[in-house]
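User: Predict the structure for this protein chain, please.
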Amino acid sequence: MTALMVINLGFGVMARAAPALNLFAVGFPITLVFGFVIVLFGLPGIQTVVVDLVSSAFTFMRTIVGST
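Assistant: Here is the predicted structure, written as structure tokens:
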């Protein structure tokens, strides 16, 4: 989220510096592409954490239900 905020702040500075540019037409696709790139590189780093959390959740649910 911080990276996308920095990108949006950059677009804000560009819009303030050159108001004749239509950054809304260009900014949204660029933000989408950068967001997908950030997700692409960020997912492998949190994959093990998410797998551990899901495993813990299923273990907890088995404990609550009482099955083994």
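The chain has two helices and no strands.
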